[in-house]
Amino acid sequence: MSLNLGLLATFAPLFILLFSSLGSLQKKKLWWLSFSIHSLSVLFFLLLTTRFYFNDPSPSTDQSFLFFQGNMWSEGTFFSWDYESCLLALSSSLLVTCLHFLSRKVFEESRSIVGAIAAYQFSILGALGSASLFLFAFFFVAAILPRIVLIGLNSDETRVEAAKETGFFSYLSFLCLLICFLVFSDHYRGLAQDWFRVVGGQYEIRPGTMGFFLLFLSSIIGSGIFPFHGTLRKVFALESSDLVIPIMIQPVLGITLLFRFATKMFPAELQEFSPWLLIIYACATIYSSIGFAGAQSGRKRIFWLQQLVLSFVLVGFFSLNNKGWHGSLTLLFYQALSVPLAMMMLVCHERRGYNFSPQKMQAYPLFGLATIGSSLFVLCAPISMGFYGLLLILWSLSADHSKILPVAVLSLPILVWAGMKIMFFNLGSRDPKESNEENMFTDLNRFELISILPLSLLLFAFGIFPRVVMSPIGNGAKILLQLLGAAK
Amino acid sequence: MITEKIFFFLFIFLPFLVIFVPTRAGRGTMLGAPTAVGAYVRIFFLSFLGRNILFAGQNVQLQTSLIEGYPIDFTLLLDKPRFFFLLLVELCFLLAYWLCNNKPQESRLSDTLICILHGLTTIFILSQNVVVSGAMQILASIVIFYLVHFSIKPELAKIGTQIAKSALITYLFLGILFVIWGVAEFGNKDLNISKIDLDSKSAFLWILILIMSTPMFPWGRWLEKTMEYLPEYVSIAVVSFISAVSLKYVSIFSDAYPQLSDDKKLFIYCIGMLGCIFSISRVFSVKNTKQMIGRFPAFFFSLILISVGLSQSQLVSSAYYICLVVPILVANSLFASTLGYRGKMEKLFLGLLIIIVLGIPGTPIYMLLSFIGTRSIEMGTGYSLLFACLWLLYFSMNVHVYKRIFLDEPLPAEGLEAGNKLIAVLSGFCFVMAIALTVIAQFIGRFL
Question: Which pTM value belongs to this model?
Answer without folding.
Answer: 0.88
